[in-house]
Amino acid sequence: MKRKRHTPEQIIRKLRQAEADLAAGLTIGQACQKLEVTEATFHRWRNQYGGMKAEEAKRLKEMEIENARLKRLVADQALDIQILKEVAEGNF
To answer: Domain of 76?
Structure first.
């Protein structure tokens, strides 16, 4: 199965479509098949993005990306500090 990434806006749009399909009488399986996603993906999306507006979901994704960048920055700085300590102690 081919994997593709969806933007938060696309996920919100697909969740709205799925809710409309479910209200029209389709099963979760049928709605997922129509959206071309697995049921696991649908449930994960619903848990993460359910009830959000598209702009809120986009902001959440931006914050997650920024958080990951900052974590990498802190890890790099901690490594630099450790290296400098070792050099200062003469353990190189």
So the answer is: 8-89
Q: Each residue of 29-44: pLDDT tens digit?
A: 999 999 999 999 999 9
pLDDT at 57 over 90: no
In 3D space, the residue among 79, 80, 22 whose CA is nearest the CA of residue 46 turns out to be 22
Q: 7-19 pLDDT, tens per residue?
A: 888 898 899 999 9
Task: Give domain status of residue 2, yes or no.
Answer: no
Torsion of CA 64, 50, 19, 8, to 10 degrees: -10
Task: Report how many domains make up the chain.
Answer: 1
54 with 9: CB under 8 angstroms? Answer: yes
- Distance, in Å, from the CA atom of 26 to the CA atom of 16, rounded to the nearest integer, reads 14
Side chain identity at 1, as an amino acid letter? M
What's the residue count for the chain? Answer: 92
